[in-house]
Amino acid sequence: MVDLYGLIVLLLALQIVSNEGFTFTKEKVDCFGNPDNGGEPCPTDTEFKEYRSKEYRIQATVNQTINKFLQKRLKPNFSSPHGIVKRADSIGLFRDLLIILDSSGSLGSRYFEIVKQQIGDLLSLFCPLPDAFSSNRRFGYNRVALIQFSSIVKEEFDFDDNRNILEIKAAIKSVPYLGGMTCTGDAFYKAVQMFNTSKGMREGTKHEVLILTDGTANCGKPLSTVLPALHAKATVFALTIGSFPASGNKELASYVSKPTPDHIFAVENFQNLQKLWNLIKAQIGPLNPCIPFDLYKHK
Ligand SMILES: *[C@@H]1O[C@H](CO)[C@@H](O)[C@H](O)[C@H]1NC(C)=O
Ligand SMILES: *[C@@H]1O[C@H](CO)[C@@H](O)[C@H](O)[C@H]1NC(C)=O
Ligand SMILES: *[C@@H]1O[C@H](CO)[C@@H](O)[C@H](O)[C@H]1NC(C)=O
Questions:
Q1: Does pLDDT of 42 surpass 50?
Q2: 141: phi > 0 → left, psi -120 to 50 → alpha, else beta; which?
Q3: What is the pTM (predicted TM-score) of this model?
Q4: In total, how many domains does the chain have?
Q5: What is the residue-wise DSSP string for 157-216?
Q6: VWFA domain spans which residues (predicted)?
């Protein structure tokens, strides 16, 4: 039985949500049906709480993106300049990050631009300064490669095509929108091949994948045939945009490394995605021009 309070909360949640132009998944609405007649059970109290506060959810995603992806420790070390690493520091501190960009028809070219903008901005928050992606070893460096996919998979740049963050941001900006289907399995297959020294990947670095997607796969190789190989090569993170039925959430969770909650970052819509970088900046505060990673923990 749905109690009156529960119903009111759900109706309020639906109203808030529809005002924001965000579509509720069918499963949640189905709970209005007669439960004895095979309707879905209504959301639990915890789920109600989630629906009640959009602010809470986006802030939780911001925190998670900072703590689990961008850095390992936010506390600034005031006795050393932010994020400085020495030439002698081990290469094991750095990452070779592969970005997998969903370019399918559901995004549309306008939202694709937002996604690209946010990725470039996120990368600019990586430490060490002055340029976390400088190929000049003295300044310490990460590398990034990018592939995009829809019905096809396209390599845009590999790990050593760009020499600094400005080149990387420009390269991301110029990635053309494809449109088409969502062959995620094909993208993962290509991703496995990208982790190869012939693509500028280094041995001894952290090998990471960040996939940005707004939907589940609807074409291409079965995911179960490619994910084990990818997980063996790299730590996989996902930034997901939208809300999905339980089967969709399960699929998206299967993309990422374990423990799942540490590797999946969800925003409900493109409006929230557009806010992400500003909220991250606000959270780390003006004292941190970049997000220091833990130089000591990972040696
Ligand atoms: C996010 O992190 C800040 C600072 O650590 C904390 O005050 C806040 O409660 C966190 N918010 C959520 C939703 O986790
Ligand atoms: C902070 O930086 C100083 C100087 O680089 C270093 O000696 C010290 O170990 C660092 N402290 C922590 C907690 O990492
Ligand atoms: C790396 O790429 C080369 C050239 O494309 C290929 O011959 C080799 O098998 C690849 N190595 C791995 C481990 O996939």
A1: no
A2: beta
A3: 0.75
A4: 2
A5: E-TTS-SSHHHHHHHHHTPPP--S---HHHHHHHHHHHSSGGGT--TTSEEEEEEEESS-
A6: 96-280
Kindly state if the Cβ of 198 falls inside 6 Å of ligand 3. Answer: yes
**How many angstroms separate the alpha carbon of residue 213 from the centre of ligand 1?**
25
- Ligand 1 proximal residues by C-beta, below 6 Å: 56, 59-60, 63
Please give the number of the atom of ligand 1 that sits closest to the Cα of 62. Answer: 1
Shared-domain flag, residues 13 and 121: no
CATH number reported for the structural domain that contains residue 274 in this entry: 3.40.50.410
Is the pLDDT reported for residue 163 higher than 70? yes
174-211 pLDDT, tens digit each: 999 999 999 999 999 999 999 999 999 998 888 999 99
CA of 272 to the centre of ligand 1 (A): 17
- Find the 75 Cα to ligand 2 centroid distance in Å: 11
Looking at the fold, whether 176 and 41 belong to one and the same domain comes out as no
Q: Which ligand is nearest to the CA of 64?
A: 1
